[in-house]
Amino acid sequence: MKKLIIGIMLLVVLFQVVYSEAAFAEVEYSQELFESLAVNKNKVPHIEIPDYKRIELENGLIVYLVEDHQLPIIEIKGYINGGRRQETKELAGISSFMVEMMNTGTKHFNEKEMANYKDINGIDFAFGVSNDYLSFAGSALSTDTDELISLMAEMLEEPKFNANHFTRVKQELYRGLVQAKTQESSLLDMYFYKNIYKNHPYSFDDDIDLNIAALSNITPERLESFYDKNISPANTIFAIVGDLDTKQMEQMLYNYFNQWGMIEEDKEQESTENKQLKDKESEVKSQEEAKEKSKYQDIEVEIKKPIVEIDRENYGKIILVNKPDATQAKIKMGYNFFDNSFKDRIDFTMANIVYGGGDFESRLMNKLRTEKGFVYGIAANDQYNELGGAYYISTEVKPENTYQAIEGIKEEMSLIKNGEKKIKEDELFKIINLYNAFFPKSYKSKLSVINRVIRDVELQGRDIDYINKVIEEYNQLSASKAQEVFAEYSYPQRFLTVIVGRKEEILPQFEEQEVDIEVVEIN
């Protein structure tokens, strides 16, 4: 019942967002609507950063608190620095295994007890994993704040990896991997990213064969060791937003989290004392503070930073994954790109939308859908990570059109790059204008804004107001600058192309053009 109440409350908020974005959703289906929305000039938006309090506990845990009394709910969003980049090939996939175990039970809650506790108290809480960090999110009615915070502390601090459900989770992961081997999209990503990222941990999650092989190496003991090395208050940060009192929440956080990472004898002593949480925000790091931290174990986490290495052997390489039962040819083509610090990221992103943003006005859609009728949809994406990114284009075509579609993609990029079809002011205006209308829709709630602040400030070292600097920068972008940036950072000769489809229908097209192509037969 409590989850139903929370759901209804969130739907009230979401209805306003969905209603206001309904017209935008139609962009996928109507070119005329896209053009009409893009012509009317929209106001340059400004995202309001909510008032917040940043606290840091003695063990290094960082929390942002935001009061929002519109609805009687509490929401949490957080990150643990590290992610999949902490994995080794021998234990590829261990991050996903670990969070699945953490989501299912703890030392004090078996699988059934945790499910019942969440249900009775109307709590949602779970962990996820990505390349550079683990994430977690939760919510509950504000009347159940204590239950939510205590469960979060339990799941973070007291996981149980030798639980009865270990074998079942392992079997489920194995079945999921075997199933993925039959899916065209999974095969496409597997052969694309294992070639782009090679032996870097960023490639591990998509490498199905590697994950299947590594699964037998994962034991409860190794999960425990991986947890101990990678999850700590010192690399954890989260936001709590909602119907809360900041001072009361500070005390609650101190009660539930300040002993995390503490040496046992100090933990026992701490539990007998009645200490009040101090605001660490404005305090200068001192010798006394350093001494205070000595009561904690080695809570610092070594974050691995292996830079993605570029393999020039990928340039122009084409891989055909033979899937005899495929009805279409799925295509993913791209190359290594920059990390999160890429200085021209905003300018390139806007220019790339002109080239391949996925809407009817983009060059790729106009060429390959409107003119040629090869595709239903096609999009070019720039993907950034902490240690290296990727640029890629995804689409699917009838098998007989595979070669022509690939050549068309490269041709359109070359036409912009060499200046034959430069980016025009009216094209860029439509993109910027649409961004001004719909970019703020992603930041209508205080949680979404403070989540962006955390990612910008704490994870990527940017300014608090970076989101508004993004808006300011893309609004100042000229067509000539967009043209310059896209020309500099687009590389049509570097494409690594992966195709998943029927060899009999696709291979002859490339052989006829005397193009080298590597054929992969699925085991």
From TrEMBL:
Any one Gene Ontology molecular-function term assigned to this protein's record: peptidase activity
Keyword match Ubl conjugation: no
Domain Peptidase M16 N-terminal: residue ranges: 68-202
Compositional bias ranges of the Basic and acidic residues kind: 269-291
Domain Peptidase M16 C-terminal: from-to ranges: 217-432
The keyword Lipoprotein appears for this protein: no
Region (Disordered): 267-291
Coiled-coil intervals, chain numbering: none
GO biological process: proteolysis
Taxonomic source organism: Orenia metallireducens
Name of the molecule in the record: Zinc protease
Domain of life: Bacteria
Pfam families with a match to the protein in the record: Peptidase_M16, Peptidase_M16_C
Alphabetical UniProt keywords: Hydrolase, Protease
PANTHER family referenced in this protein's UniProt entry, alphabetically: METALLOPROTEASE
InterPro entries linked to this entry: Metalloenz_LuxS/M16, MPP/UQCRC_Complex, Pept_M16_N, Peptidase_M16_C
